Amino acid sequence: MIIQNIISDGYERFLVVNTIENKKLFVHYIEYSEYLNDNEKSKIRNVGDILSAEIRIDLVSNSYITNGKLDFFQEIDNSSSIKAIIEVKEVIDEYTIFAKTSLCNEVILIEFENKITYQQNDRVYIEGSLEIEPSENDK
User: Residue 139: pLDDT above 60?
Assistant: First the structure.
């Protein structure tokens, strides 16, 4: 991912990134090693930096089975809020799955706020937060 913009609030970071697949995403993560006041400039990451990170969707509060095609929408400016249609690839437990998405070419982790009963290959509409976890080399 290439960082296009950084918005900071304490330890929280909101980034606009371009992915390898040339998709523009607004993502959230916590930078535990650096506290910044009101958009103060980071000493760790800058616009233009290449960031290796795993994408996931957390805090899924609304979901239901659908027959739609894989897709995603980020309709709120400067927000990691995401609406997506995903395909369940593996059920980890009653709150967690791995899913195929249109965000990237790999399956990603999806974590729900409520218990789920989805099965492998189900298509599911979800609403949550698009999160990243920087790789060990980028921490």
Answer: no
